[in-house]
Amino acid sequence: MLAAVVASPSLAYDAALAETLGADEHGMKMYALVLLKPGPRQDLAKEDRDRVFAGHMANINRLSGSGDLVFAGPLERNDRYRGIFVLNVKTSAEAEALLATDPAVQAGALAGDVYLLYGSAALQQVTSIHRTISKD
After folding, report:
1. 106: CB partners within 8 A, 6+ apart
2. What's the rounded Cα separation, in Å, for the pair 71 and 87?
3. Is pLDDT larger for residue 66 or for residue 4?
4. pLDDT 10s digits, 76-112
5. How far apart are CA 130 and CA 56, in angstroms?
6. DSSP assignment of the chain, as one string?
7. How far is residue 46's CA from residue 70's CA, in Å, rounded to a whole number?
8. Among candidates 94, 117, 120, which has minimal Cα distance to 33?
9. Is residue 127's pLDDT more than 60?
10. CB of 22 within 8 A of CB of 121?
11. What integer pLDDT is reported at residue 10 of this predicted model?
12. Of residues 5 and 122, which shows the higher confidence score?
């Protein structure tokens, strides 16, 4: 029975939405996953660190507003990574260019490892949905 469900086309398929989101025939598209890690400058003074991380958050909001950032979030404290970005780009070079706009990266407080990620085109709708469930 499951094979029949998987093999049949979706009854809810929305061709216009799929096109708007850049989805392929599987409802997927390419993104870039950035694993944020401590950069070479972990010795910043508190006021400098506060300033660059305020800029980091402003940059996240800017990239989200432009549609370049699909998802961002911090990771549980660990020895290797601090957070992730999912960027709405097709190439590592495009991701590196966006990453270079981050004040925390520019200051050396953060660095990023970039990997291409093939995922659901619907991920692009997370931010707009989040805005409807966030009180602030």
Report:
1. 52, 100
2. 7
3. 66
4. 999 999 999 999 999 999 999 999 999 999 999 999 9
5. 20
6. -HHHHHHSPPTT--HHHHHHTT--TTSEEEEEEEEEEE-S-----HHHHHHHHHHHHHHHHHHHHHTSEEEEEEPPS-SS--EEEEES-SSHHHHHHHHTT-HHHHTTSEEEEEEEEEEEGGGGGHHHHHHHH---
7. 30
8. 117
9. yes
10. yes
11. 60
12. 122
Q: What is the pLDDT of residues 8-50, one digit of tens each?
A: 556 789 999 999 999 999 999 999 999 999 999 999 999 999 9
* Contact criterion met (CB below 8 Å) for 119 and 31: yes
Q: State the burial class of residue 46 (Cβ atoms within 10 Å of its Cβ: 0-12, 13-18, 19+).
A: exposed
Q: Which two tokens stand for residue 26?
A: 């599987």
